[in-house]
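Q: Okay, next protein. This is Ammonium transporter from Rhizobium terricola. I've checked the sequence twice, so it should be correct. Can you predict the 3D structure?
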Amino acid sequence: RALEIDMDAALARGEFELFLQPRVSAVTAKIHSYEALLRWNHPQRGLVSPVDFVAVAEVSGKIIALGEWVIEEACRILAGTEVERLSINVSPLQFRHSDFQHRLGEIVRASGVDPRRIELEITESVLIDDDRRALQILKELKAVGFTIALDDFGTGYSSLSYLSRYPFDAIKIDRSFVSNLGLDESAAVIVNTIIDLGERLGIKVVAEGVETIEQALFLARAGCDELQGYLLGKPVALDERVRTIPASV
Ligand code: G
Ligand code: G
Ligand code: MN
Ligand code: NA
């Protein structure tokens, strides 16, 4: 059966799960927050990656229900565990949906979770179509306390004007640049430039896909604020181990 046909039933049966991956301070090595990464425990196919179903969910429109489930589950984790802060990925389609902001507000309010504990990761494709509306929504979300991160920075169009025009709290350097550090001279130049930009604009810079000590040292010396990647921790299911970690700073 096609994945899209299964999705409603999968939501009802509780087959989706949020894996958590730590984001760590490059200075203190303390966990700042976790990124929530969606997984589907499919009864026949096993653990399915969002790469294989998010695009399908966007085409069918199921991304709205799925995205709301992600917000609800993130709030359950924040309300019921020691996890201090979570970032959640918001699909461009979900962000542009007329009801997004309203539903997000409703779900978070009902959970009693402080919006300051939630970061929304958006990609620049959100900003391309209707940038004035996007700016208005981002400002309103920030006014309520949500923080906003620009994900996959450096891929796509990555207009530098986005960084000054929109109220981002964090920029996430795409992992393609991090993985090329030490291999490709231009990757180091690009990474340094993004870190410098973030510093000058007062936006926190987070490196993704950090897999080696060499990459971590390079990034820390360059002034990158936070690191995320397999070296610091893989995305894992919220098990008892995660439930009992001490509250992060
Ligand atoms: O965790 P993984 O490497 O499999 O994620 C693959 C892609 O799926 C990434 O681009 C990530 O941003 C995206 N993704 C992960 N979780 C979610 C989610 O909850 N919602 C949306 N829209 N995308 C997600
Ligand atoms: O697009 P986004 O940045 O949300 O995607 C995050 C994706 O990157 C997730 O699917 C996650 O599983 C994956 N990821 C996280 N850390 C690493 C890493 O160190 N190396 C690689 N190759 N992928 C990673
Ligand atoms: Mn992300
Ligand atoms: Na990314």
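A: Here is a summary of the prediction. Residues 15 and 84 are 25 Å apart (CA to CA). The radius of gyration is 18 Å.
Q: Noted. On to the next one.
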